[in-house]
Amino acid sequence: MAINKQHAIDPDKCTACTICITACPVTAATRKFRGPKMTGPALTRLRKLVSDDDPMLDYCSNCKTCDLVCPSGVPISTLNMIAKNEYYKTHPRKSKADDMLAHSEKMGKLITALPLGSTFANLGMSVGKSFGVMGAMGIAQDAKMPSYASESFISKFKKIKQTPYPRKVVFFSGCYINYNQPEVGTDLVKVYQKNKIEVAIDENFVCCGSPMVSGGYIDDARVNASKNTALLKSWVDRGYDIVTACTSCGLMLKQEYQELFDFEGMAEYAAHMYDSIEYLAKLHDDGQFDTDFANDNTKYIYHAPCHLKVQAIGRPSMELLPMIPGIDIEEADVGCCGISGSYGFKADKHEIAMKVGSKLFNRIKNSHAKLGVCECGTCRLQMENGSGVKAIHPLTVLRQAYGL
Amino acid sequence: MLKTTVVVIGGGATGVGILRDLSMRGVDAILVERDDLGYWTSSRFHGLLHSGGRYAVKDKEAAKECIQENTILRKIGRHCVEATESIFVRAPEDSEEFEQEWVKSCAECGISAVPISMDEAFKLEPNLSRKLLSAYRCPGAAVDGFRLLWQTVASANKYGGKAMTYKEVIGIETENGTVVGVKIRDRWTGAEEKISCDFVISASGSFAGEVAHLAGLSVNVKPSKGTLIAFNHRICNRVVHRLHKSSDADIFVPHGSITILGTSSIDSAPDDTSTETAEVMAMMEIGKITFENIYDYRILRVFAGTRPLYSADPNAKGRSASRGFVALDHAHDGINHFMSVCGGKFTTYRLMAEKVCDIVCEQLGVNAKCHTAEENLVDDPSPDLISRAKAVFPSYGAELASSRLGNEKLERVIKRIETQPEMKELVCECENVTLAEIEEVASEPTSHTVSDLRRRTRLGMGTCQGTFCAYRSVGAVNKENMPWAKDSVYLFKEFLETRWKGIRPVLWGNMLRDIELTRAIYDAALNLSGVEEIK
Ligand SMILES: Cc1cc2nc3c(=O)[nH]c(=O)nc-3n(C[C@H](O)[C@H](O)[C@H](O)COP(=O)(O)OP(=O)(O)OC[C@H]3O[C@@H](n4cnc5c(N)ncnc54)[C@H](O)[C@@H]3O)c2cc1C
Ligand code: SF4
Ligand code: SF4
Ligand code: SF4
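That is the input. Now the predicted structure with flavin-adenine dinucleotide docked in place:
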């Protein structure tokens, strides 16, 4: 099916100012990439005219830094993703990893469904690496892959006994939290309960589709978008707000769906969507945020994920976490970590990803912080991988400060 | 002193067509053009290779000529023609009876017009207005004016035909009532020289009256100006016509990376290529019937050309004057071996040349037949050359560059990149023009300005309209071995002024923002206007 949102493939807003090129982390890391202006709006015009080999498309990590800086509101990264989707309809894929990384939910389901599946999968990752299996698959040999949890968040959630409150949210956990770091999800429930919020989940939610879009599988993402949109709309109709604790899921559901697809109800539910910390910050604005914190004398360094920045919601974590008595937290503020979801796991992109992230890694090391803080799961992995400093979700910092 | 058999005045479609035809028949000929090839109407036009559909009801002869020439040019000029096909659409405001008459007429003229459902039409062209009622597919196409002229000249060159640019004919010399030569002046050096010849053909388009005047004659051309609006991207992938009695602003032509809407019809001076904002707005309102979201699309620029309409009756005006072409033999006016050719269409340029050359050859006693329909203008690049091009050009560059450069020049450009890989850097990012191509074209003797490079390469014709490629290209040509490119300030001004001329009437929205950026670079940073420092 064709992309039917006309405005999304319209290159007319670009004034060729080149600002996006100066901000793109991948362009800074490799001369092989011609950057957002060319790959996005400029070539969109030519793609309507001729077709050709276009190796440039794979370089864009969909970090969306370009969208953030563009003074003309060009959906640059979306133009890139649409072009990639169209391109691979007629050109063979270079890497076998694309499919696997784009459909991470399939993998997650498979692994957690097996008894001891996660143990074997995690073992398999390291054994596979040493035998070069991952390399043959197109996965970077020395990239640290996300490990799988032995029990999914959904299964853990069902065992939690919550106090019912009139303020209710539905939590879209997303694949990473569900299969890889369920403790972020359970931290959310604890922190929200402390703030008199009742948390619901919906087992029918499917992967938001973010990795599919980045991988150039927009048609697959469309199927997921259609399912999620209907479900999310029905929760909002029942008076629920929606929260996510993964900024890529949040961005996808709130903004990218609308750029790419045309389903009934998207704008309506999006008005009720919040990042998990943003939601608490809103509570704080209304004087309802619980600040009954214990001391935390740890030194932290906070990294704002690209997909949070582009949501234009400020830095809610840097509003709330400094309220914890004794805390020492600073923002890294040196741009992209390089991983961009699954980008940094690909064999031919790993080096670029590490180069992009090098500023952040040095910043973390030089800060002498004990822990990194970040809302995005794969960013946290990249921070640990590059700097050796462990990184946690801001919800975890709050949960600890509440003494829960 | 130069000597030849025939001098052709005017390097538009008509003139180059005649040059090629004569050369292929073995007649010695030189073409003299006052400006660059295609500087006037043959580039300031709509770029539509007519299927004939537009004329089917009103002028069956013209329609038949169009479909015949369309078929020939698709073959011999395949590197200049984008064989897009066309769609005729009827809107609620268009008459149904006309549709029926049109279908019948197309059949009579041998123009294929295949009715399609509106669903199919919207699938083919998603931006079409949902209010449209019926649609037909026809064999229209887009044709690149600059490219067709240069490739026609390249073909003439193979047979000894020569074209000189920036040479203005300032006198036509006769002896005993017969032409013996022309006097020309070099537009750059001012030097004058004579070309002696046996025959002069004036193919000077809207200027035919002025040129005839040089021989003391009068030719009654009524130039009629038409404005064209260029949009930043391909709104449609096929030519889209309104299915009604021909009128203003009823055709959209996808052209390379852009779309052109046209046109209008206003009596004008031959050199009037100005456009008023009000004219643009009036055309947009009509265009909206075909593409309902037209105001969302960014206008890149506007341009205008004048139709060289000939009329024997000095009082006939505008669109109703005959579109057919005339070949006036001035023997009737007392000067032998002097003809004026004007009118017609770009689409039928080859046929017009054939008819004119039949007359000329008869007078010169040459028996050779016309072969212009049988031979391609330029050879196709070999698969080997194409794969070499693919290896060195940036993405989306190889195919476009090969069709605009032609074989030999393509090979030279490829060599430049093969020996100096940095030559593949883009000077123009919007239209994907490499440094190698700019340097190659700049080194040709026909290049005198950056606008000349633009006409050969599409440099500066994309989204930014010269903002970034102006300083890059001026920098690239300002070299020892390019004597024409010494005065950078002149080069900047000439290039940017011609770009801005087309933008001023449509200076709003994103184009206004774009031009502010241009001003910041050229006026603020480079102080091109030469403002004194404020103490
Ligand atoms: C707005 C518009 C849209 C059109 N759209 C289409 C279309 O879509 N399809 C189509 O088939 N046709 C179209 N036409 C018609 C077509 O463009 C013209 O019929 C054709 O280009 C005329 O070519 P020409 O060579 O006769 O004139 P020109 O291209 O004007 O060439 C005449 C040349 O003579 C030169 N000259 C003048 N005086 C001298 C001198 N003293 N010495 C030396 N040289 C001199 C001029 O510099 C000029 O370059 C359109 C016309 C207009 C105005
Ligand atoms: S999304 Fe990120 S990597 Fe892609 S072009 Fe934009 S800034 Fe560069
Ligand atoms: S920042 Fe926006 S307007 Fe500027 S070049 Fe990039 S896409 Fe175009
Ligand atoms: S972006 Fe969010 S839902 Fe989607 S794969 Fe990541 S974790 Fe899954």
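Residues 60-76 of chain B form the longest helix (17 residues).
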